[in-house]
TrEMBL record:
Gene3D superfamilies according to UniProt: P-loop containing nucleotide triphosphate hydrolases
Segments forming domain Helicase ATP-binding: 14-288, 36-285
InterPro entries noted in UniProt: ATP-dep_Helicase_C, DEAD/DEAH_box_helicase_dom, DinG/Rad3-like, Helic_SF1/SF2_ATP-bd_DinG/Rad3, Helicase_ATP-bd, P-loop_NTPase
Annotated keywords: ATP-binding, Hydrolase, Nucleotide-binding
UniProt keyword Glycosyltransferase, yes or no: no
One Gene Ontology term of the molecular function aspect: 5'-3' DNA helicase activity
GO annotation terms (biological process): nucleobase-containing compound metabolic process
PANTHER family assigned to the protein according to its UniProt record, in alphabetical order: DNA REPAIR DEAD HELICASE RAD3/XP-D SUBFAMILY MEMBER, REGULATOR OF TELOMERE ELONGATION HELICASE 1
Reaction(s) catalysed (UniProt annotation): ATP + H2O = ADP + phosphate + H(+)
Cofactor field: [4Fe-4S] cluster
Protein's organism: freshwater metagenome
UniProt xrefs under SUPFAM superfamilies: P-loop containing nucleoside triphosphate hydrolases
Name recorded for this polypeptide: DNA 5'-3' helicase
Amino acid sequence: MASETVNAALAILDRTVMGIDGDNRSGQQRLTSAIAQSIDQGCHLMAQAPTGSGKSLAYLAPIVASGVRAVVATATLALQDQLWRNDIPMVAEFSGQTVTSALLKGRSNYLCLARLDGTNTEAALFDERPGPTFSDDLITLKNFAEVSSTGDVGDLEELIAPESWRALTCGPNECPGANKCAQGVDCFAERARSQAELANIIVVNHALYSAHLATGGRLLPPHDLVVIDEAHAFDAVATNALGAEISPGGLRQLGSRLRRAGATARHADAVISGSGRLEDILSQITGRINPIPVDLAEVLAGTSEAVANASASIKAKESALAAQAVKLSLTRLDALRRMQAPDQGEVLWVEGDKRRSLRLAPVSIGKRLVPLLFSQTPVVLISATLGSGERFSPLAQRLGLNPNVECVPVGERSLARKVGLPDEEEMSSEDEDGFTLVAPEVSEIGYEALSIESPFDLEKQGLLYVARHLPDVREPEWAEAAADELCSLVAAAGGRTLVLCTSWKGVGMFSEVLEKRTNHKILTQGEETTVRLVEQFSSDETSCLVATRAFWQGLDIPGPACVLVVIDRLPFSRPDDPLEQARREAAVAAGGDGFREIDLPAAALVLAQGTGRLIRTHKDRGVVAVLDRRLAVANYRSVLLTTMPAFARSVDLLEVKAFLATAST
Ligand code: SF4
C-alpha cells in the first residue's frame, strides 16, 4: 500500500503538471513514487530518467511532500538555473505548501569584501598582474558591492575581465572563515550560507557537494537527503575533490603572497625556490609516479618545511592578506604531505604538457564515498544515463554501492554497527554482461534501482548508423575514409550537424575537412566561448559544430538545428591515463578484467551521453552516425548498444540519407 508521503508527492506532482498544462506521464509518476519511498525508508536509489521525462519535478514533489531538508546537486549551471528559476518556484506555487530554498555556489562565485577592501591597502598587489581593464572593473565591482544583495558573479550585468574577478574573489582554500575576517559579518558568501541554513531545498553543484564531503561535511547545513542529478558525472568531480594538486606556479604564487603578508623573506624565498626545483623535476617525468624518485621526495619535503616556516613567521596574522595566506598555506601543506606518502589506494602522477602539475587521486572513489556519503545520508542518484549493466552495476560499484545487496536504511545501518551486529554475508557473482560484481573489499551498501521509459518514440524519431564499411579506426586509411563519410552525411543533412570527437586532434582534422569541402558555417570548439558557439549553432540552422568531450553531455539543442550527430570513435579513455590505468590494475588484482570492468562501462556511459544530444523533444528526428566500425563488429558491442537510446539501427548509408531527407525539412 502506498505510504502517505507517496500519495502526497503524487498529488503535488499532479497539481503541478495540471498547473503548467503538462501531460501526465506514467514514468514520471513511477519515479516520484520511488523517490518518495526512498525518503520514507532512508534508502539509496539509482534512477535513470531519459530526456523529457520530467525528472526534476519528480524529485521536487516528494521533497516538498515529505518536508525533509534536501540538497540537490547538479553538474551543469543550466540545470541549476532551471531548478532555481523555474522548477522550484513552480512546485512551490502548485503544492500549496511553504517551500524555502537557497542557491549556494562555491566561494569563488562571490565577491570577497576583504579583497575589495584590500585594494585600498596592502592587498593591492595581486597574485596575477591585473589586466588593462582592472581600474574600470574595480569601479564596477565597488558599485556592485553597494547594490547587490548576493555578490554573486552570476548577477553581475556588466562584463568584466576574468582576471579582475579572480583578484577580487576568494577561493575555498584561502578564506580564513568569517570569525577571522574583518568583513565576515557582511560577507556575501557567508550570507548565502546563512540563507541556506534556513532553506529546506538547497541547490548546489557537484563540485561544492564534493568539497563538502572532502571537508568532512563542514560546508553545507545538515540535511536528510541528497539528490545527485546528472549523477553520471559525479564520480569524476568527487575524485578531484578528494584528491590533491600541486603546481609549481601555485607554489610560486603562495611564496610571493606569504612574503607580502609579512613572512620572513628567507622562508618565503625558500618556497619560491622549491617551486623552481619542482618545475625542473616535473619537466623530466611523465605519467604515473611509483615509487616516488628521491629528488622529488626531497623537494616535496623541503617545500613543506619552507611553507610551514614561512606561514609561522607571519607575526601580524589578523590582516585579510595574512589570514588568507595562512589558510592557503595549510591547504598546500596538506597536499604536499599527502604527496610525500600516498596511501596504498591512491595514485600520483604528472599532469599536463607545458604547464605541469602533480596530481593525487583515490583509485577507488567508492571506498571514500561509502564512509563520507552513503553511510551518512540517503542518496538519490539520478540521470538520463546511468550506464550499462543490470541495476547500473558498473557505475554503482564505482561509486561504492553493491548491486547484490538489499538496501538497508541509512539510520539502521549505523545502528547495527553501533550495537555490534554482524555484517551482511559477502557475496560474489557475475551479472549478465560478465562483470564481476564484487571486489574483495566489498561495499555493504545496497540500493534500489529504477529505469523509466523515454516519453519519446525513439525507434521512429532516431536512427543509429554505424559506418561498418569504413576501415578500422586504428588503420591509417581510416582518417581519409571517415572524412569522406562525414562530408557525405553533412551534405545529406544540409549542415545541422554536431560532430563529437574523442580528441582535439579529431576536432582539428574534421573541422578543417568541413571548412574546405562544404559551404556550411563551421563552428569549432576553442574558437569562441561555449555559450557563443551554442548560440550560433542554434540560430544558424545550417551550421555545423565540431567539438570534443565537454560537448558530449549537457548540450541541449532541440529542433532542426541539430538533425545529425556524428561520433568519430568509440570514447574509450586513453590507455596511458594514470588514474584509469591504476583502476584497471586494481580490477585485475581483484580477479576481474580491466577492459570489461573499467574501460567498457565508462565508454558506454559517454557514448550514451553523446547519442543523447540528438532527440530532445517529441518533434525531433535525426541520425546518430558512428564512424567507428567496432560498434557493429566488436564482441563487446552489445554492452555499448544496449546503453544507447533505443533508436532504429542501420549500416546502410542510402537508408540514412533517405531518413535525413525527411528529418531536415
Ligand atoms: S569571510 Fe572574508 S575572506 Fe572569506 S570570503 Fe568572506 S569576505 Fe572574503
